[in-house]
Amino acid sequence: MTTTHASRPLSTLSTLSTLSTLSTLTAALCLGACNAPDPGAEDDETGIETLTPTPTGGDSETDTATTDDSGDSETGDTETTGGEPECEVDEDCEDATLLCTEDKICDFNPDYCGEANNSFDIVTPNVVLVLDKSGSMVANSWDNDADPETPEVSRWYSLFNVVELIVGDFDASMNMGMVLYPSKKAKAEYNVNACLVEATPDVSVGPHQGEALLSSMPPENATGVQIAGGTPARAGVVAAYEHLLGMEDGLPKVVVLVTDGAANCSTEAEDEASRFEVYDAALTQVIADAHSEGITTFVVGIDIADVESEIKQDGNPDGTNTFQRLNELAIAGGMPQEGAAAFYDSKNQIELQEALTQISEDVLSCEIALEPAPVFPDFIEVSVMGTSYGSDPVEDCGAENGWSWTTPEKDTILLCGAACSTFQMTGALDAQYHCPITK
């Protein structure tokens, strides 16, 4: 698996449409494209900049300045008698992005309409899923469909199915990897064998890693033979952090920590009892340190009760309120939720899916820099997966589908509503650079 990746071009900036869609504008646009726009031209009352072909023939009268021997200037007047445009429109001209050459043949004009490169980079974050594979993930069941009449399923069953949906939706737009904690080598034993974690991710971060993730996870119907061990969350996130810090591609770095209990398996444990019955408080500082180095950690809880645990030898940290501990982790990770639960608090499979979907959308930016910036920003047309959102920006990006400008220079757009969500799942964006009507 590759571990370093450059930004991937997932979208194309196309040239303008052909005569079939702009038949009435062909002559005007091709004629106007014979020359670059006059920087000093003023807009008419329609707000459309006019482009004037440069005359080349005839006598021309201009104000000319001459300098006599003394250095003083004199102004003389000459008279203009008109002339023909520098080039004529060829009858076979079929595209408004074309200009007329000296041979009166329409050629592509790379410095005018349609001047953009064939593609531009989209930010694809590097995301590591750090997934709880402790014994409680199959020992405990919960509701998967919010229907009390249907049988409950194991927590692992739900986690596997939600990960399957997430990679299906976002595999094309995120570089993903995975760490299982404890590892698949862990045993259901009251010793260090329950705390094993691989030093490197089970799946290295990379594009289109969905299939690799699912094939590396124990199956959805796994039993206690395959899902066993303690909750060595600290070792899990450390493996993820070290992997991400070793990637120097400049992309956002994200960890999604999913757990159904409080962390144990402390590496500083003095004996077996403290290894499993004492909370690993060092986890909070490890997450905070990673955030200071540019790694954001999202925390997702599975069926977490807001109560303090009993003091008994059961493999769970004694006297610990896991709800409060996960709040601390979420705050340290840099992306806490509003309200009583700073972490994503899921009580069934539906809420778990909603949590991971929301996180995926949060880490995928819908702000797109148009490179190069359009010459006529008021005439671009934005489409996502074949759906056109027109040339007019929306007024309320939070309530409407479409796009809006984010910079005064009009060189960056923000996709809104359905346009954003579709783009996040597909990365398919098309921005067509149109020209104004010339007069």
Query: How far is the N terminus from the C terminus?
Result: 57 Å
At CATH level 3, the topology of the largest domain is Rossmann fold
Query: Count of DSSP helices?
Result: 11
CATH superfamily of the largest domain: von Willebrand factor, type A domain
Poorly predicted parts: 1-121
What's the overall geometry?
Answer: elongated
Strand sequence of the main sheet, in spatial order? 11-10-7-12-13-14
Strand content: 15-25%
Describe the protein in words.
This protein is α+β, with helices and mostly antiparallel strands and 439 residues long. The protein has three domains: 18-37 and 80-112, no CATH class; 124-363, von Willebrand factor, type A domain (Rossmann fold, 3-Layer(aba) Sandwich), CATH 3.40.50; 366-433, no CATH class. Helix content is 24%, strand content 20%. The chain has eleven helices and 20 strands. It has helices at residues 19-22, 26-32, 136-139, 155-170, 210-216, 233-245, 272-277, 282-292, 322-333, 349-363, 418-426; strands at 8-12, 64-67, 73-76, 98-100, 106-108, 119-122, 126-132, 141-142, 153-154, 175-181, 203-207, 253-259, 295-302, 344-346, 367-369, 380-384, 387-388, 402-405, 412-416, 429-433. It has a six-stranded mixed sheet with strand order 11-10-7-12-13-14, with helices on both faces. A three-stranded antiparallel sheet has the order 15-19-18. α6 runs parallel beside α8. It is elongated and about 75 Å long.
